[in-house]
Input
Amino acid sequence: MKEKLEQIKVDAEEEIKNVKDENALNNVKSKYMGKKSAFNEIMASMGSLSPEEKREVGSKSNEVRSFLQELFENKLTEIKNEELNKKLESDKIDITLPSKKRKSGTKHPLNIVREEIEDLFISMGYDVVDGPEIDTDANCFELLNLPPSHPARDAQDSFYITEEMLLRPHTSAMQVRSMLANTEKKPFKLICPGKTYRRDDDDATHSHQFSQVEGLVVGEDISLSDLKGTLELFAKKMFGKDREIRFRASYFPFTEPSYEVDVSCFNCNKKGCSMCKGTGWIEILGCGMVHPTVLENCGFDHTKYQGFAFGVGIERVTMLKYGITNLKLLYQNDYRFLKNFDRKEM
Ligand code: DAH
Output
């Protein structure tokens, strides 16, 4: 029996060498230590031995059992370690590899320009206000002194939703809203950037949706020179410190007097080029002194208060500033175009 036990040790040790995984190891374990194993049979037959033999075989079988147990335990640890190493190997991250460059979005040129305008006016103490894109006929036209016969009130020119509601055709509607909302009728300065809508056919210079910044200052002793100084700063900030501006008499129902403002051509410096159509000047905005009727319509005493207002197209400023010749580029969101405005890459 002792020889048999010794043989079990040898056989088990030999067989276990080729075991590669835990499953196979369990099979070998049950073959050598399980109920139907040769080892177990020897243990079961011990009862028939003499006390002398029992002691000898008993101590040998204890030795073999511990040997087998240790053998299987060590093999199990070995298998587990190997599995772990394989996993670590396959999960390995090479931190020295260059990363894949992720394309990140860029600020849209219209937003760059809008924010630049906002920053300038905030620095001069203006509030920046926001208003609804759907507004009433009264706010868009009537209270702004636009007579019923004015072409802008024609259903052909604006997007009417009902008889009384429309998509605002200009941010000037915010002049009315902000004056009416000013219940204490106190002086104020604000700009309102936002989207505007007109029934235009889209082409290189027209879009049914575009954006404007409205400016409105109401107070005592506000004069045309305040307006001129403000717009001069604006032109220099947007188009360069050497720019000059000039006022041309114009007509808007909500201002009196009204002007269109030109900036000296930043391409040729007034010499005349294709950009300024040979005139040396480029039109950038409309403005004027707030019409007394508009002040009164909105509850401001026109004998005490004056105001100036201006409206500038953000697309127009953006196109001039960056030399963009087709308005559509500003709406197509083509990454190849937009990435030119990535300040990290500029
Ligand atoms: N609302 C005018 C437009 O869309 C622009 C404008 C002109 C705004 C004169 C003003 C202004 O505030 O005073 O064409």
